[in-house]
Amino acid sequence: METSISKTQKLKITPKLALQIALPLVLLTIIPLQLAKNTPFFKTLSSSSSSSSSPNPTPSSSSSSPSNNVRSSYNTDHHHPLPSTKRTKCDLFSGEWVPNPDAPYYTNTSCWAIHEHQNCMKYGRPDSEFMKWRWKPDECELPLFNPNQFFHIVRDKSLAFVGDSVARNHMQSLICLLSRVEYPVDVSYTQDEHFKRWYYKSYNFTLAAFWTPFLVKAQDNDPNGGPSGTGLFGLYLDEADEARKAQIDDFDYVVLSAGHWFFRSLIYYENQRLIGCRFCEISNLTDYSIAYGYQKAFRTAFNAILERRNFKGIVYLRTFAPSHFEGGLWNQGGNCLRQKPYKSSEINLQGVDLDLYMAQLVEFKKA
User: Fold this and answer.
1) What gap in Å lies between CA 149 and CA 217, rounded to an integer?
2) pTM > 0.90: yes or no
3) I need a labelling partner for 264 at 20 to 30 A (CA). Which of 92, 155, 247, 288 fits?
4) For residues 218 and 239, what is the distance between their CA atoms, to the nearest angstrom?
């Protein structure tokens, strides 16, 4: 199994619509890895597709979002090449970001799913050029995301984003892309914005996001604690987040992600016993590296999923996303003023970012 940073890992199993499902996930999740018992990561571009049905959770509510009406037919005319009927292999993860004058496909004003505090333009972003890019694999063209085609593929199915705020952002982005065809109905079980479920009635498709930034059992020991004053959290590294784990059973596709919450001050427990910490500055406690707790958390999360007898779906792992701040950390004068992405020759994954990425790969391969 390859461990190249630019490539995804492959499991030795049979393909099922994975490309069509993976394409929007590729656009939303830079380097996804797949954890499944009977399905591989399929990196073949083909214009043919088929759809199989599987059980989908029944929505528990009929409360409405801004609108649940089917939108007018989406115009698929665009300037990006469409895939030919000839099947060709392509590494989707080896490529460059290239200019895309047609972007963006939605904004804060055109998509209701983006929260007010996420309005970059309102809070000082002076330009919009940073949004006008698209991913171009070296060996092929990625077709423009087609919401009609996506709905056709996921009819009678369900998809959940599980993890931190990046997982929530992925769900919001997908809602915005799909809103050109249909608005969903809010069928959430709670008013808590951290746990949202949306239902697309015309396609019997459920989309959800479940908040679990550490993936394991966690408690907020002191909201203002730790050397940075951003909280002191207790992580039970060998105990899964039971509430979130039980919710995935009914889903056909799960995108798992976690990352930057592990940079906070953390207290580590194993076997119900205090073993040490990360950046806590508490005397007589062993100070572990950030990768230690991160790797243990993913080990526990993977094992918990594989032990779920009722879960028959596919899990995609969204690997660690490095911080985008330049000139300092987020709380030390760092900024996000870059207008274009790095080229592959301009930056290398290294240091803590590389350590966390490799920690995920180690546990992924074990699972």
Assistant:
1) 38
2) no
3) 247
4) 9
